[in-house]
Structures are given as structure tokens and as C-alpha cells.
């Protein structure tokens, strides 16, 4: 039976590598501003660890009204006891404002940690068992999975609050919502390029997400969504990029966000990608400020 998310998550949030990679004072100031402008969900990638857990704590302090989501942390080499302890410590200081996302990544990630990748769904199931067995467990309502295919999505629905898919379309969201029902959280990542020129927008999109199109798990999922080998070329075809990325002016981007919400998404995590410009700041503050003006008009559809 699905578990309800045990923390607040609004319709729209910010997903940002820069909130991990920029200088700590700049990250603090940006997180505080995002919170003040109404972005009450801040997502950072976990990748293979490397300080991600510490970065969550920093953002909780900098954005006192926002939920902070780790989306997602590769399970290989992680300590379930330590993660449970950290979550309990954050809750004691900041309240229940943290979501921990977990993913199986790939066989190379497992090998680097000296572990056997095995069958992804079975490996994730064992990881969830370990989280449950920790002295301070990470509750099902505070964890999600980085799922794409139906078996991992079903595991997410059965043993976590839901899942955070990457490189998906509104059609994916609609199909999964129809399949799993109303309860599990479906919170897709959505790349955004605030650029009206198609060539510049698509170039920025390919620079930001193009490499992932070559990864087997994403290719398999995109094929399930009806994309062909002509689309799954290095960097992706124009048709694929246009389907995966919200680009254009604010109105166009707002419409694309609403497509996901209307399709059944509970939350959309916006990942700003920028055309290359000289002397641009490390953090996309102008774009985040523009996107914040859309927040009053965005809400999830009832499903």
C-alpha cells in the first residue's frame, strides 16, 4: 500500500546542481532568496555522495521554510544507519523538511564502491530493507526513488512515498498516474531554458542533459515513450529535445509546467539550463527570479 509523503511539497520547486557546486556563501544567499520568493522546495542531485548530505543541512539552514530534497543519491557505499541518524538530527532542529531520494545509478557506480550491482530492483529492495532496519530508520514517507521503468516505480509506490523521474514527458506522467493511482508522489524533473531562439535553446538543452540520452536506462524509457533510434542520437533529435525540455519565454515555460501538473504530477522540479554567455554568474539567479513570477498561477490538478 502506498505511503503518503510526510512533509510539505508544493507544486513547483527548483532543481539545481549549482546549489551544490557554487561557493558556499553564494549558495546560502541564493537559497534564502529562493525561499523568500516562494520556492518552497529545493532539490539537489546526490550523485555518488561526495558531500551531498552536508549540503542538505546547509540548505535547511539557509531556506527555513523550504523542503530540501536529495534527488537522488546513489545507494552504493552509503551507510543506512548514518543517514537515519542525520535525518533524525535535521528533524530535531529544522522540523520535517527533508526528502531523501535514492537511486541505483549504474554498475560502474556500484563497482567503485566495491559492491555488486546485481538486479536493480532487487538491489534497491535490499537497500530499503537496510534503511528500515537502522536504529533510526528513514521512514517510508520521507524517502522516494529515482525510478523510470514500471518495476522500480512499483517498488517506489509500495515502499516509499513515490518517485522522481528524470527525462520524461507529460505522457509518461499521465500513464504512470493512471497505472498506480492517486496516492504515490510523482515528481518529475523538468529542464528549462528561458530562450526564445530555437537553436540557442536546443543547444543549451543538449549541453545540459544530452549526455544522459545515451545512458541505457534513459534510452529504454524513452523508447517505451515512443521515441525511435532517429531520436536517440547523441544529444537527442530536435523532436526529443522539444518533448523533454521546456524552452521559450515565460508563458511557454509555464504552459509546459502545467502540462505535467495536468497529467497528474504532484510536483515539478525545474532545472534551469542556460545558453553559454560570457561572465554569467555561477547561479542562474535572473532565471529563478523570472520563474518565481509564475508560482501564483501554478497548482497541481486534482487526480
Descriptors:
8-stranded parallel beta sheet, two-stranded parallel sheet, 10 strands, single chain, 303 residues, 13 helices, alpha/beta
Question: Would you give an account of this structure?
Answer:
This protein has 13 helices and ten strands. Helices cover 44% and strands 14% of the residues. With 303 residues, the protein is of the alpha/beta class. The two termini are 18 Å apart. The protein has an eight-stranded parallel beta sheet with strand order 5-4-3-2-1-10-8-9, sandwiched between helices. The chain has a two-stranded parallel sheet with strand order 6-7.
- C-alpha-based Rg, rounded: 18 Å
What structural class is derived from the secondary structure elements? alpha/beta
Q: Quote the distance from N terminus to C terminus.
A: 18 Å
What does the main sheet amount to?
A: 8 strands, parallel
Give the DSSP E fraction (strand runs of 2 or more residues).
5-15%
Report the helical percentage. 40-55%
**Beta strands, count:** 10
**Uncertain stretches:** none
Outline type? globular
Order of helices and strands: EHHEHEHEHHEHEHEEHHHEHEH
Number of helical stretches of at least 4 residues: 13
**In which order are the strands of the major sheet placed?**
5-4-3-2-1-10-8-9
Mean pLDDT: 94
Amino acid at each position: 500500500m502506498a505511503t503518503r509523503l510526510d512533509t510539505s511539497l508544493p507544486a513547483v520547486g527548483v532543481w539545481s546542481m549549482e546549489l551544490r557546486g557554487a561557493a558556499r556563501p553564494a549558495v546560502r544567499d541564493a537559497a534564502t532568496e529562493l525561499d523568500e520568493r516562494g520556492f518552497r522546495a529545493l532539490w539537489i542531485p546526490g550523485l555518488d555522495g561526495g558531500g551531498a548530505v552536508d549540503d542538505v543541512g546547509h540548505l535547511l539552514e539557509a531556506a527555513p521554510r523550504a523542503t530540501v530534497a536529495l534527488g537522488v543519491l546513489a545507494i552504493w557505499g552509503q551507510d543506512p544507519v548514518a543517514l537515519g541518524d542525520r535525518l533524525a538530527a535535521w528533524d530535531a532542529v529544522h522540523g520535517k523538511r527533508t526528502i531523501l531520494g535514492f537511486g541505483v545509478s549504474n554498475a560502474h557506480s556500484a563497482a567503485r564502491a566495491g559492491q555488486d550491482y546485481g538486479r536493480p530492483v532487487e538491489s534497491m529492495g535490499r537497500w530499503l530493507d537496510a534503511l528500515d532496519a537502522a536504529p533510526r530508520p528513514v521512514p517510508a514517507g520521507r524517502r522516494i526513488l529515482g525510478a523510470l521503468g514500471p518495476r522500480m516505480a512499483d517498488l517506489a509506490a509500495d515502499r516509499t512515498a513515490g518517485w522522481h523521474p528524470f527525462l520524461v514527458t507529460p505522457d509518461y506522467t499521465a500513464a504512470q498516474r493512471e497505472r498506480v493511482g492517486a496516492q504515490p508522489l510523482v515528481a518529475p524533473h523538468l529542464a528549462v531554458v528561458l530562450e526564445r531562439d530555437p537553436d540557442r535553446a536546443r543547444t543549451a538543452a543538449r549541453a545540459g542533459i544530452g549526455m544522459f540520452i545515451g545512458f541505457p536506462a534513459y534510452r529504454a524509457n524513452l523508447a517505451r515513450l515512443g521515441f525511435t533510434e532517429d531520436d536517440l542520437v547523441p544529444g537527442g533529435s530536435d523532436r526529443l529535445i522539444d518533448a523533454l525540455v521546456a524552452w521559450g519565454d515565460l508563458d511557454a515555460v509555464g504552459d509546459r509546467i502545467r502540462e505535467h501538473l495536468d497529467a497528474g504530477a504532484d510536483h515539478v522540479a525545474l532545472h534551469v539550463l542556460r545558453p553559454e554567455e560570457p561572465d554569467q554568474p555561477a547561479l542562474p539567479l535572473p532565471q529563478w527570479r523570472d520563474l518565481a513570477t509564475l508560482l501564483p498561477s501554478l497548482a497541481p490538478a486534482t487526480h
